[in-house]
Amino acid sequence: MFTELAVHGDDARSFLQSQLTQDIDRVTPSASPLAAWCNPQGRVIALMRVRVRDDGFGLILLPEIADEVKRQLLLYRLRSRVQVENAGDTFGAIAVHDDNALAKLEDALLVPAGTQNSSCTRNGVTTVRLDDNQPLIEVYGASPAVADLTGLTAADALPESSWRGARLAAGIADTTTATSGIYTPHMLNLDRLGAVSFTKGCYPGQEIVARTQHRGASKRRLKHYRAEGDFNENDKLAYDNKEIGEIVCQAGRDLLALTPVETHDAILTLGQTRALPVAPG
To answer: Are residues 136 and 154 in contact, defined by beta-carbon separation less than 8 angstroms?
Structure first.
C-alpha cells in the first residue's frame, strides 16, 4: 500500500527541515509524525509519514506519487549533500490490529506508546500507532527485517481495504496523483493532525499556510461522512439542492469530503443518496 523515499546524506535533516511542513527535530525513534510537502502556492503536493532510518529519514507515501515527489525534491537539492532514493520492492508496509499480531510486536519490543503518531524503531523496523481511538499499528521497514524481527506474516496483516478505512476514520486523506497540488494543509485538516509546525523556519508555501492559520480563514475542511449508497471520489455533495463540496477519498461507504465548516453537522446528498456526518471519536 505504501512505499518509502530514503533521504540520507550529511544535509538530510536540514534539507527536509527546509522543505516539509513538519519540524524534523520532532522526528525521533519514538515519534513518526505526518508531514506535507507543499508547492509555493501552499497546496499539498504530498502527504507522508516521516520516520527515522539508520542512514537518515524515510518518507512513507503512496507509490503512485513517489517517483514524481522524488524528482521534484531533487530539483530543490541545489548544493545540499543529500540523496533521495526509492526503497522499491524491498520495502514492506502492513497494518495489524488483532491480539495475536500485537503480541508478536510486544515480544519484539515494538509496541508504540498509546498516543497518536507514537512509534518504536528497532533494527530498521518502525511501528506507528495510527491514532488514540484504534488499536491498529502500522509496521514499516525492509520486508526481510520485518519478518525476521517481528515474526509477522501475511496472515497477520489487515486487508488493505480495512487499512484504508482505518486511515480515513483517523481523518487522513492520502495524496494521490489526482489530488496532488489541489488542497491546502488546512483543507486536509493537517494542522489538526499535527502535520504542520507553525514555529519552524521557512518551507515552500509557508507564508500562505501561516497566513491561513493566523487569520482563521479556512472555511472549507475535510469532514467524515457515511453514504447510504454508492459514490465515487470527486463526486459532488449537495446541501439544499446546491453543490457545496467534493469527495476527496473513500473506503467502502465511508468518505472524507471537503465541505464548508458551517455545514459539517448537516446531512448532504449525493444525487438521490444521503451522506450522513460521522461524529468524531
So the answer is: no
| Sequence letter at residue 131 | D
Burial of 58 (0-12, 13-18, 19+ CB in 10 A): buried
What is the CB-side half-sphere exposure of residue 42 using CA atoms within 13 A? 17
Q: Do 238 and 244 touch, CB atoms closer than 8 A?
A: yes
**Can you give the pTM of this predicted structure?**
0.94
Q: What is the SS3 assignment for 48?
A: strand
From the number of C-beta atoms within 10 Å of its C-beta (0-12, 13-18, 19+), residue 52 rates as middle
Q: Each residue of 143-179: pLDDT tens digit? A: 888 999 999 998 999 999 999 999 999 999 999 999 9
Are the C-beta atoms of residues 134 and 166 closer than 8 Å to each other? yes
What does DSSP assign to residue 245?
E
In three-state secondary structure terms, 209 is helix
Please name the residue that has the C-alpha cell 508555501.
205
